[in-house]
Amino acid sequence: MKRQIINDSGAAVTEALEGMELSFPDLVSYDTDRGLIRRATPARDKVGLVSGGGSGHEPLHAGFVGRGMLDVAVPGAVFASPTALQVHEGTLAADSGRGVVQIVKNYTGDVLNFTIAGELAGDHAVDTEMVLVDDDLATDTDTDGDADGPGRRGTAAVVAVEKIAGARAELGGSLTEVADAARRVARTSRTMSLALQAGTHPGEDRPAFDLAADEVELGVGIHGERGISRARYASADELSEMLVTPLVRDLGLGRGSAVLAIVNGLGGAYPLELSIAARAVHRLLGAQGITVARTLVGTYVTSLDMHGFSVTLTPVDADLLKLWDAPVRTPALNW
Amino acid sequence: MKRQIINDSGAAVTEALEGMELSFPDLVSYDTDRGLIRRATPARDKVGLVSGGGSGHEPLHAGFVGRGMLDVAVPGAVFASPTALQVHEGTLAADSGRGVVQIVKNYTGDVLNFTIAGELAGDHAVDTEMVLVDDDLATDTDTDGDADGPGRRGTAAVVAVEKIAGARAELGGSLTEVADAARRVARTSRTMSLALQAGTHPGEDRPAFDLAADEVELGVGIHGERGISRARYASADELSEMLVTPLVRDLGLGRGSAVLAIVNGLGGAYPLELSIAARAVHRLLGAQGITVARTLVGTYVTSLDMHGFSVTLTPVDADLLKLWDAPVRTPALNW
């Protein structure tokens, strides 16, 4: 039986947001009425950045609100989209007169509600640009020609998109420039994930699905969606290879390529495991002459307490690295 | 059955350190021959800081090597002290001519080996000061008069000690001044921990000990040492109160006190849980008129993948806060 450190399953999300505000009052402020987390000191005269989506992926997105990253995050309930009204309020709150870039992971409800909010913002004379993040290679439908499907899901690449767009906005970029920088990262990033154990919803005592002792779920989604296949439980090196190989192939990486790598814990993976996985990712890419220019290793985009990890690769050049290296100060990402 | 993302249980520690070096090559360098992690660019003309101890507590200590914190970390095997020779090499490597402060968690093997290394350093004309961290209130023996016992164990307060001492050293403090700052934090910090599930050693498929479905282990150690008592599994608020109440009493905190609070995941706790626990800690302290001046929330001092958390409280004044707020750049702590 899986037990959790919670009070009330229905209140877990709001209590966690309250905890974040209490812990980092100089960074973020939780507006409970409007259901949004915003910078404690709103930015002035810059393009605004709003993101959001279902909760259960902590520290995403509220943990990335602050200087150099988001202005506002709009969290829904666990694995449920924020409402259109909530996104609308968040979009207006992110505006300081130069328009707002909405960063949206590709899920039907999120896309719908951010789209409505973008249209409503226009009524308030706030210009918006929506950037779709759809990095999950496991859900790529190009191969079977299903062009009308929902497309790839948005997962951990959203951290890179928010960081790069945040830096571009902080440096004075226009609405178009910030949206372009975000879209470039979104378009070129791909992620693969695997789980050794599914996540357990707050208040439940069993993981969302069972895996046999010799199986891992490959291509698992951050809402606990089943993956594309089962693979055999194997060494960290072999598991990492299952993730890295399709990414390298899809992105057409090879000798001379340079990438940003995000080795992301899905909630229940502990630091020793993530460092071992990061080693494997470096060695696999290094053996193919691919330079890992920067690495982020940690627990950033989760699926509750799912035990597993994801690897995200983003091709980078000097311009992107400069934006990646720009200062950031949020509850969950700092340098 | 608990499975892990590892290759070989015997190599897990060194592979994780390799992963850290590969991921953060601008921050840390892993000297495999001497078994130590040091800054990629050694500091010059400042008091050196070395810490270390058994592994299995990642990101501690290697994750705290970098500007504003440690110069060198000497990791042992999982839950095993580094050798005296290793600590000796680490102490010399941390010296840039102004002496070295050794930060040591209070465990017999660690104390012994750092003491030997300190004596050996003298032979090399390197002055050392050893600072003992013994914050674990669960092992306080004052109450039963066992003055000859091993004393309190060292746990998560070591992060505060390393941060404060690191800042003091970076600001040009003398060997005595840096050691004094570290000792002040060590002397006044207390920690309480609890586990919902014990950690699982790499390569094992069962946690180190079992807990009944309605029990938590209160006062558990970071090496999986059994706690001082079993308590009933309860809400996050009630669990947090079991930790905070004895801390407040022991430290004599009350209206007008100001503290630094570290809400630390022991490995398997996921971000949503830690934010909910942080909320509880703030509310419990706030209700008693105690100001939480700064909060650190995250997974910093672990017991492998133990599911649980600890709370550390350190009384602070303006001088300590200035040192806490000073810049830090390491794999695991940044601002």
Automatic annotation (TrEMBL), chains A, B:
Transmembrane segments: none annotated. The keyword Amino-acid biosynthesis does not apply. One of its GO terms (cellular component) is cytosol. InterPro entries: DhaK_dom, Dihydroxyacetone_Kinase. PROSITE patterns: DHAK. It holds the Pfam family Dak1. GO terms for biological process: glycerol catabolic process. It comes from the Bacteria. Keywords: Kinase, Transferase. Residues 8-333 form the DhaK domain. This is Dihydroxyacetone kinase DhaK subunit. It comes from Rhodococcus koreensis.
